[in-house]
């Protein structure tokens, strides 16, 4: 029981990182039907940004995370503008391959500039471990969980309650009709990349604090797992991405807890295959039936 | 109010519109009739700023607008009700209407616009919290028209509003088009249902293979034997 509780806490912490990343995949897919394979690398850049501003500029955690979010938001907008926008009317596979190219560029560019060495992330917040009835919870875990939930709530409010949020939903269901009511499609897509990338930037700083190490290829595996999370949740669905992220986090720590650490990645992909066989549109995805 | 002069538009490699010219005066209902594929929707998309012409001018209130982006066109007072309605599924009826007022800021006039729309289409008020995708075809057409009205257009472009609707809905839709026009909105109506369209139109143009073949008042075109043979099943 105790182990179970402990793994639940660990799983939720890791899961909230996946959830933050999965949101970016799902929002971008929802609006331009592109799987942005460079998304995991934006998360890596967010972590590096955090590393530098904490070490060089002595930012505290809050400012490091906020500035990483802004930096990544701008980066997402720039990548969309130069790499994906010119391909808006090209076949989808062209944009997909470009996304893989952008991912390689960021990974190898960072390796070239900063070497492939693993760096230890500055511990800007001192880790304190609380003992609660046999469970060990660190303040970092609480911080990750709290921040992730806060950001997801904020995102939900932006999507549901703001004008840009409504524009995002309109463009994702019907770009032509969105234009006809006066929505600027380019601005809306830029805004979507900014939001998704900001989430990835926050996740990068949080994971730096949690795992204490960063490197230029750190975005690859979490990027793919967050993509799996988005697919399991139902790609294009915002609540689906959050739920999918937590599921993957729990699954991964659960598998490790029963002593199958070596198979944790395999299990994640196995579950992906099973879910796609049983629920091809994911948990929250639905085939929209429209009357004509 | 709007004049289209020597408009040429390509659709992919095909020249869909070949030197089309027509005019709409303030307060009129003007209809463009023609068979499927005659290029009617292409003309509307060009006016709305979604497609760009190869050559020719679109002049609206003394301003050339053929290079103006779609959002600016809506802001200038031209709203389109697209073919196939294109309502936003997953958004409620009210949210769909709210999207129609996307570029407007004055809360009071937006509140008035809701009221006007709900007066034209009481059924939308009943269903305002429902997902728009659950509406019937006729109700979706009403919603698409209501959404366009939310922008307070001076000129409303309607693309095949009667398509796929039951006759009872068709009559209702055409009555409302007339009411909207009577309330001060100029209307450009595109229809395959030429009989209905010509009977409410002040003037009409007949479009075939991307060219204007005939023009005249609604009554003249209804009485024209060539039009009767080609479009009125007569």
Automatic annotation (TrEMBL), chain A:
Task: Kindly give the CDD domains that the UniProt entry links to this protein.
Answer: TM_PBP1_LivH_like
Query: What domain of life?
Result: Bacteria
Q: Name one GO cellular component term.
A: plasma membrane
What are the TM regions of this chain, as residue ranges?
A: 12-32, 60-83, 95-114, 140-159, 189-211, 226-251, 263-284
Q: Which GO terms describe its molecular function?
A: L-isoleucine transmembrane transporter activity; L-leucine transmembrane transporter activity; L-phenylalanine transmembrane transporter activity; L-valine transmembrane transporter activity
Q: Does the keyword Ribonucleoprotein apply?
A: no
Pfam families associated with the record: BPD_transp_2
Q: How does it sit in the membrane?
A: Multi-pass membrane protein
Classify the main location: membrane
GO biological processes: D-alanine transmembrane transport; L-alanine transport; L-isoleucine import across plasma membrane
Q: Where in the cell is it found?
A: Cell membrane
Keyword terms = Amino-acid transport, Cell inner membrane, Cell membrane, Membrane, Transmembrane, Transmembrane helix, Transport
Gene3D superfamilies, per the entry: ABC transporter involved in vitamin B12 uptake, BtuC
Concerning its family, UniProt says:
Belongs to the binding-protein-dependent transport system permease family. LivHM subfamily.
According to UniProt, the name of this protein is Branched-chain amino acid abc transporter, permease protein
Could you tell me which species this protein originates from? Levilactobacillus parabrevis ATCC 53295
Organism taxonomic ancestry: Bacteria, Bacillati, Bacillota, Bacilli, Lactobacillales
Automatic annotation (TrEMBL), chain B:
Output the Gene3D superfamilies linked to this UniProt entry.
Answer: P-loop containing nucleotide triphosphate hydrolases
Q: Can you provide one Gene Ontology molecular function annotated for this UniProt record?
A: ATP binding
**Sequence ranges assigned to domain ABC transporter in this UniProt record:** 2-234
Write down the PROSITE patterns for this protein, in alphabetical order.
ABC_TRANSPORTER_1, ABC_TRANSPORTER_2
State the UniProt keywords alphabetically. Amino-acid transport, ATP-binding, Nucleotide-binding, Transport
- The domain of life for this entry's organism is Bacteria
The Gene Ontology biological process annotation of the record reads: L-amino acid transport
Q: Name one Pfam family in it.
A: ABC_tran
PANTHER family, alphabetized: HIGH-AFFINITY BRANCHED-CHAIN AMINO ACID TRANSPORT ATP-BINDING PROTEIN LIVF
User: What family does this chain come from, according to its entry?
Assistant: Belongs to the ABC transporter superfamily.
Stated name of the protein: Branched-chain amino acid ABC transporter, ATP-binding protein
The organism encoding this protein is Levilactobacillus parabrevis ATCC 53295
